[in-house]
């Protein structure tokens, strides 16, 4: 997944490496694509969600790690959420939320993303685990949990992405990419269901800029919604191409079949300050695309 530093303009990307590898989880690039640095070998099997927040005079990373690798190299351990400096130095680390009393085993916790609240708190989506969302205050103290598995409002099937929608003219609400239910869900900031939005196929994560909502859709497209959540455009959408891509996830392992200007599996996307878009995809080699704003 991807996030941009507003202070430096650098691009931070997380990815999952093979379990027995020794590869950094976080890679940092200049806007030109030039590599700057990397870190995070300790999370290399579970690198996933990433957000950057300015906490006063300094920016920090918030990382959702789906699974962790113990020092003895044994089987994967439960995931965690961590806050670090922009160079990977740990500020704090949160294991599974035992305070919630929702888990009979830590292994059922596998967080996929974080949403940053404007009061300094944050939310964690357990998208690959038990489909709950957990809320914390600005001191990383547990507050509450909501959700769980289901199709009814307020329930989820793979709450993969999560974001606080603060676009002008809207009440601040939590928006969830309820991926396997093929929908977006809006909830109050304390977790009560408000509404459901369609016009997505397999939504993964969000970004906002001005009145625009940007949605990375794992089914080969990037969507932009207007302030009323009407579709402005599905970038890269081609039904025939999508049919080829949805071949049982074979194409993601076959770069020779990929075509420039067409997406395989967008996993995250974000705006830069000029309205350009960076897209990262769930493919075996990894791929980052730069979409330049022209109108």
Commentary on this structure:
By secondary structure, the protein is mainly β. The protein is 2% helix and 44% strand. The protein has one helix spanning 239-245, and strands spanning 2-4, 11-14, 26-29, 35-39, 47-54, 59-68, 77-85, 90-94, 113-116, 122-125, 132-136, 142-147, 159-165, 173-178, 183-187, 193-197, 203-209, 212-217, 221-225, 231-235, 266-271, 277-281, 287-291. Strand 15 and strand 16 (193-197) form a beta hairpin. The two termini are 26 Å apart.
Number of helices: 1
Runs with pLDDT <50, length 5+? none
Trace the largest sheet across and list its strands.
1-2-3-4
Q: Could you tell me the number of beta strands?
A: 23
C-alpha geometry: globular
- Head-to-tail CA distance between termini: 26 Å
H and E order: EEEEEEEEEEEEEEEEEEEEHEEE
**pLDDT average, as an integer?**
94
Helix content: under 10%
Give the helix/strand class.
mainly beta
Share in β-strands? 35-45%
């Amino acid at each position: 997944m991807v996030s941009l530093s507003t202070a430096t303009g650098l691009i931070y990307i997380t990815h999952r490496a093979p379990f027995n590898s020794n590869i950094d989880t976080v890679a940092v690039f200049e806007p030109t694509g030039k590599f700057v640095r990397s870190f995070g070998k300790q999370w290399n099997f579970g690198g996933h969600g990433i957000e950057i927040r300015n906490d006063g005079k300094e920016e920090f990373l918030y990382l959702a790690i789906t699974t962790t690798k113990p020092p003895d190299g044994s089987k994967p351990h439960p995931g965690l959420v961590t806050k670090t400096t922009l160079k990977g130095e740990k500020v704090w680390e949160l294991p599974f939320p035992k305070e919630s009393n929702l888990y009979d085993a830590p292994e059922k916790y596998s967080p996929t993303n974080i949403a940053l609240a404007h009061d300094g708190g944050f939310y964690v989506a357990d998208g690959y685990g038990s489909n709950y969302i957990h809320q914390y205050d600005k001191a990383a103290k547990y507050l509450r949990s909501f959700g769980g598995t289901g199709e009814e409002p307020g329930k989820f099937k793979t709450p993969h992405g999560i974001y606080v929608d603060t676009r002008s003219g809207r009440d601040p609400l939590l928006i969830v990419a309820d991926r396997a239910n093929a929908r977006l869900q809006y909830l109050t900031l304390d977790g009560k269901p408000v509404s459901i939005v369609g016009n997505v196929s397999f939504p993964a994560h969000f970004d906002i800029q001005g009145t625009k909502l940007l949605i990375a859709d794992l089914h080969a497209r990037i969507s932009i919604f207007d302030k009323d959540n009407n579709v402005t455009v599905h970038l890269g959408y081609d039904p025939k191409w999508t049919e080829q891509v949805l071949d049982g996830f074979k194409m993601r392992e076959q770069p020779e079949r990929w075509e420039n200007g067409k997406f395989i599996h967008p996993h995250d996307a974000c705006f830069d300050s000029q309205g350009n878009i960076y897209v990262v995809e769930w493919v075996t080699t990894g791929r980052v695309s730069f979409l330049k704003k022209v109108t």
